Amino acid sequence: MSFGEKIASIMERPGQDPVSKDDVPWYMKYAGRGVGTVGGFIAIFLGAWNCIGILLGDVSCLISGMWQMVAGFLVIIIEAPCCCMFLDFVQSVSDNVERRPYWNRAAVYCIIALPAIFLCLGVSSILGSGLIFATGVIYGLMSIGKKASIDDMSAAAGNPQAPAATMRSNLVDNAQPIGFTSKPDSNV
């Protein structure tokens, strides 16, 4: 058993299939989980730090800090439900999100990260919400999927009957060449 397989067996969720159903590499899955978990904790801490802005009379930083803490908690609930075992609904929420496609998670993480930055532009907002946004970017990359093999790419580039080439040529098959236009009919 390799080191990667040992880490993968440790990081498995309860009841998870040992065989992956998608083509996403294991390091991308754990990068998303790791950045999401660490980013969620950092977002909560820096969100509390933003809330101190109320002492200076900055209400938008207070709202930004509260938003950032809620977003960080939501990311922790989804990515690391073991950190919130004392809440009974966390595992069901996390399992429900696991069944969704990766692009759903990417969109949610990117959307919930932005309001805190727009409300209070500061280092703590950018760093805390930036890690949540980075988690969304990682899941967005996972939703794109695996790159084709070099053989498949070279076959598609060299073969005019490849699906990409035929798709492109079908778009222009019905176009009339410029040099073969007919004269206007003078009888009309």
Automatic annotation (TrEMBL):
SMART domains, alphabetized: Cg6151-P (SM01077)
Bilayer disposition of the protein: Multi-pass membrane protein
Transmembrane segments: 35-57, 69-94, 106-139
Pfam family membership, one: Cg6151-P
Subcellular locations according to the entry: Cytoplasmic vesicle, Secretory vesicle, Synaptic vesicle membrane; Endosome; Presynaptic cell membrane
Record keywords: Calcium, Calcium channel, Calcium transport, Cell projection, Cytoplasmic vesicle, Endocytosis, Endosome, Ion channel, Ion transport, Membrane, Transmembrane, Transmembrane helix, Transport
Major site of localization recorded for this protein: membrane
Superkingdom of this protein's organism: Eukaryota
GO cellular component: endosome; presynaptic membrane; synaptic vesicle membrane
UniProt GO MF annotations: calcium channel activity
Keyword Ion transport carried by entry: yes
One BP annotation, GO: endocytosis
Oligomeric and partner information: Homomultimer. Associates with the dally/ magu complex.
Homology family: Belongs to the calcium channel flower family.
Protein name: Calcium channel flower
Organism field: Fopius arisanus
